[in-house]
Amino acid sequence: MQILTINGAEHRIDAPPEMPLLWAIRDLVGLKGTKYGCGIAQCGACTLLINGLPQRSCVLPLSATVGRAITTIEGLDDRVGQAVKSAWAELAVPQCGYCQSGQVMAATGLLSRNPSPTDAEIADQMAGNICRCCTYHRVKQAVRRAADALA
Ligand code: FES
Ligand code: FES
């Protein structure tokens, strides 16, 4: 039994400690916003925040998340997260949408620790999140817009 804090609420998870967090989030807790892409930490679709930092939940064992604050796209409601979501909507960033939860979480993690990133820093951070629909340009525009809104 693991006790996880997800979006501010405690969840008792009856699963082995080595289970990837993504499995528990989606299949045991029922939060489907965090997506499965590659399963090997390469695409970023499963990105969520652990203590405010972007992490790949497909390779993160439950045991590594006990006692830490897990934030998924469903619970992203702080000032930075709101600014990112607003920028995403204003610029109509998503196409199919599959990668976008991970993109938003990665962007929020970036702006939470670096509110005024350079274009190079935005490109560097977001390069780890793959989008098969090639929304990369709008993603970078939206991160810039969110940063400007937070300034
Ligand atoms: S599903 Fe986790 S990085 Fe691709
Ligand atoms: S919007 Fe389709 S994969 Fe990114």
Molecular structure report:
By secondary structure, this protein is of the alpha+beta class. It has two domains: 2-75, Beta-grasp domain (Ubiquitin-like (UB roll), Roll); 79-150, [2Fe-2S]-binding domain (DNA polymerase, domain 1, Orthogonal Bundle). The chain contains five helices and five strands; from the N terminus they run ββαβββαααα. The chain has helices spanning 21-28, 79-90, 100-113, 119-126, 136-150; strands at residues 2-6, 9-13, 47-50, 53-56, 69-71. A five-stranded mixed beta sheet has the order 2-1-5-3-4, sandwiched between helices. Strand 3 and strand 4 (53-56) form a beta hairpin. The longest helix is centred in the last third of the chain and has 15 residues, at 136-150. The chain is globular, with a radius of gyration of 15 Å. The protein binds FE2/S2 (inorganic) cluster (2 copies). One FE2/S2 (inorganic) cluster binds at residues 94-100, 131-133, 135.
Catalogue the ligands.
FE2/S2 (inorganic) cluster
- CATH class label of the largest domain: Alpha Beta
Tally of helical runs: 5
Q: Classify the beta-strand content into a percent band.
A: 5-15%
Alpha carbon gap, first and last residue: 43 Å
* Unreliable spans: none
- CA radius of gyration is 15 Å
User: Describe the biggest sheet?
Assistant: 5 strands, mixed
Helix-strand sequence: EEHEEEHHHH
What structural class results from the helix and strand content? alpha+beta
CATH homologous superfamily placement of the largest domain: Beta-grasp domain
